[in-house]
Amino acid sequence: MTLLQNYAEGRWVTGTGKGTTLYHAVTGAPVAEASSGGLDFDGMLRYARTVGGPTLRAMTFHQRAAMLKAMAKHLMECKDAFYAVSAATGATKSDSWVDIEGGIGTFFAYASRGRREFPNETVYVEGPTEPLSKGGTFVGRHICTPLEGAAIHINAFNFPCWGMLEKMAPAILAGVPCIVKPATATSYLTEAMVREMVASGIFPAGAIQLICGSAGDLLEHVTEQDAIAFTGSAATGQMLKRSPQVTANSVRFTMEADSLNCCILGPDAAPGTPEFDLFVKEVVREMTTKAGQKCTAIRRTIVPAPLVEAVVAALSARLASTTMGDPAADGVRMGPLASKGQVRDVGTAAATIARGARLVYDGSGQELVGASYDDGCFFAPQLLLCEEPLVQHEPHDTEAFGPVNTVMPYRELGEAVAIAKLGRGSLVGSVVTASPAVARELVLGVAPYHGRLLVLDRHCAKESTGHGSPLPNLIHGGPGRAGGGEEMGGVRGVLHYMQRTAVQGSPTMLTAITREWTKGAEERVDPIHPFRKHFDELEVGDTLVTPSRTITLEDVERFAALSGDTFYAHMSDEDARAHGIFTGRVAHGYFLVSAAAGLFVEPTFGPVMANYGLEGLRFTKPVYPGDTIHVRLTVKRKTAKDVGPDGVPQGVVEWDVEVRDAEGVACAVYSILTLVRR
Questions:
Q1: Domains present along the chain, CATH in parentheses
Q2: Rounded to whole angstroms, how far apart are CA atoms 454 and 442?
Q3: What average pLDDT score do residues 457-481 get?
Q4: What pTM does this model have?
C-alpha cells in the first residue's frame, strides 16, 4: 500500500497521524493511505504568494502559454503510467481517457489561446477606449492584472486529473500559483500526475502545491487576493463559502455543485427517426460513463407523453446490453462506483427519488465480468418513471450521483420547459429534435436555468462532443443549484484570476501604461519610413502621415470595371441622389482602402514580410470624385513571436489606420496586421 505525500513549500512531505485508507474500486483491496496532518497551511499560502506568484507574474502570457504547452507534452509522454493508476478508480479505458487526456487537452487548449488571444505582455487590455471628454484629452481603459494570491482548487473524486487540470490551466496562464486539494478517495491518481509535473521542472517553484487529505485550516488564512474554485456537493460548497475569512475578505469563490441535468426529447423525434436513436444512445451513455459519476450526467429525461412507453423500452433494452464489471476485462462498458460509501449514498438517493417515481428498469441482477458485488463498489443502472413530474418533487430535489435516471412525460413544450426549470439550475441540458422551431422554443425557455445547452440532431451527431463533455473554449458552470459559478470559457476563465481595473487619464498616459496606442496620444514622426524599420526598432506611437491623393471620376469607374462592383451609387449621380444617402456618385469604400495602401506602403524589400489581416473596418464619411485624401498610419500594438520553422525572428505589428479628407476628418478607420522581421 502506497503512502501518499503532499507537495508543500517546494518539497514532498508525508502527513502525520493516522491517515485515510483508500481502496481499489474493483477488488476492494487497499491502494493507498492519505494524510495531510502536520502541514502548515498558512505557510503553503505564503509560499505561493511570495515564491510562486512573483515568478509567474514576471512572465508574459506567451511565456506562460509556452510553459503550459511544454507541461502538456510532458504529461502526454507519461500517460500510460496514469492509465495504470486510474484502473483503481474503477474507470474504463474511455472513462480514463476523458480524465487523463481530456485534462491534458485543457493545457494544450489554453496554451494555444494564450498565444492567439493574449498579448506577449504581463497586462491584458480589455475592451475599447472609452471617451470621457469632448476634446479627447481624458479617456478610460480597462486593464486586467493577475491576483497576488493563490488559487485554491478543491476538486471532486470523479475526475482526479481533469478536475485539477481544467482549473489549473487558466490560473497558470493568468499568472496565479495553485494549491490543489483533490478529493481524498482518488487522490492517489492526482498525486501521481503532480509528481510528474514537479519532476519535469517546467513550472517554477511555488507554482503548484498539493494536499492529499484534509484541507485543515487552509481557508482560515485566505486573503482578498486569493481565489477559491470548488467542485463537490452543494452542502459542502456552501459551508466553505460561508467560512469567516472567505466572507470577511470577499474572496472570489467559484462553485460547481449538484446538478440535476436534463435531456428533452422533441415531439417530432418519434421512434424510427435518427433523433430518437441519438436520444436513447445519449441518455444511456450519460448513465453509464463513469458509472454515472459525472456532474454533467443526465439525471432527468423529459419526453412527450405519447412516447413514454417507447422511450422506457428502448432505454431498458440498451441498459440491459451494457456489460458491467472489471474495466480491465474485455467488453466491459461500465465499471464500479468510486467507493463503498458512494454505493451507499447512491442507493439512499435512489430510494428517495423512488418515493416520487416508480422503478421501471433495475439492472441489479446483471452478472459482472471479472468482479463481484461483494468485493467491488458496483451499482447497477436504475431507470425510474415519474408520471406526475409537476407534482412530485423528489426527482427534482435529489441527485443520485450514479447510474440512476428518471423519465418524465410532458404534454406540450411549455410543460417541458416548466419541468426542466424544476431542477433549479443545471450545468448542462440537452434538446434532441430535428425541428428548428422546437429547438428555439425549448432552448430560450430553459437557457436562464442552464450554463450550457446541447442541441442534438442528425446533422451534428457525428462530430458532436456529446451532452456531458465540458470544453475549454466554452464555460463550465451553471446557475442556482449548480453553484452559480463559471470555469474555463476561453478568455473568461483566465480573467477570473485577474483584477479588472478601470484606468483614467490622458491618451499618452494610457498608451504608456498599456503599451497599446490610444487615439490622441503623442505621435512620433520619423523621417525613416516605418516599413523600413525592424520589429525591435519600432515603438508604439510611431506615425507616418502620407502625401495626399485626389480621387477622380476615372478612379471610380476603373475600380468598378476591375472589381465588378457597379452598385448604382458608384455609377450614376442621379441614382445616387434619388435613391441613396449620398449627394452624388461616391467612391467605393474598398477603393479607398486600396488607395490608402498605395499611399503608405513602402514597396521595396525591407523588414515587413507580409500583411495578413485587416480588422475593424468602418467607413465614416463618403468620399466623392474630386475629394483629396491622405493617411495617418500609427503603430498600435507589437507582439513578439517565437522563431518559426523558417528560422526568421519576427513579430506582429498592429497599425492604426485613418484615411482622412483634406480637412483632416476620418473617412475610413481600421487596423492592419503585418509580420515584421526582428
A1: 46-257+492-499 (3.40.605.10), 266-469 (3.40.309.10), 523-677 (3.10.129.10)
A2: 11
A3: 91
A4: 0.90
